[in-house]
Amino acid sequence: MRDKKYKWHKIAESPEELNWAANGMATVEIKGKSICIARFEASFFGFSCKCPHAGGPLSEGYIDAIGNVVCPLHRYKFSIKNGRNTSGEGYALKTYPAECRPDGLFIGLEEGGLLNWL
């Protein structure tokens, strides 16, 4: 199995620049993709803005005490660390690595894959 390679995109000079909601999430647009950013336990996490079950707006949900994003529509739960469905329905949430560096906050989008293999 090969290691994933990422192209890193700077989304802010610092986390304070983002428009954080009261639920600890912000939304950014990278290459036409809407991505949610969450702060949890002094770390940052990126994931799809839409619930894989019914397309609910995850940015309007919340992060529970153990680090799951909870969809506001049907209360499905997904780990913000790896995208696994933790409420038992069998869906998976697309996640993106996030890094806070001295020169800014970055999100990684995977390079390669089926549609971008060159």
Note the quaternary state here: single chain
Q: Unreliable runs, pLDDT <50, ≥5 residues?
A: none
The number of E-state strands comes to: 10
Total separate domains = 1
Question: Into which percentage range does the β-strand content fall?
Answer: 35-45%
CATH superfamily: Rieske [2Fe-2S] iron-sulphur domain
Rough outline? globular
Shape-level CATH architecture: 3-layer Sandwich
CATH class: Mainly Beta
**Average predicted confidence as pLDDT:** 92
Account of the protein in words:
By secondary structure, the protein is mostly beta strands. The protein has one domain: 3-layer Sandwich (Rieske Iron-sulfur Protein), CATH 2.102.10.10. It is built from no helices and 10 strands. The protein has strands at 6-12, 25-30, 33-40, 43-48, 62-63, 68-70, 77-79, 95-96, 98-101, 104-110. The protein has a 4-stranded antiparallel beta sheet with strand order 2-3-4-8, with no helix packed on it. It has a 3-stranded antiparallel beta sheet with strand order 1-10-9, with no helix packed on it. The radius of gyration is 14 Å and the shape is globular. The model has no long low-confidence stretch (mean pLDDT 92).
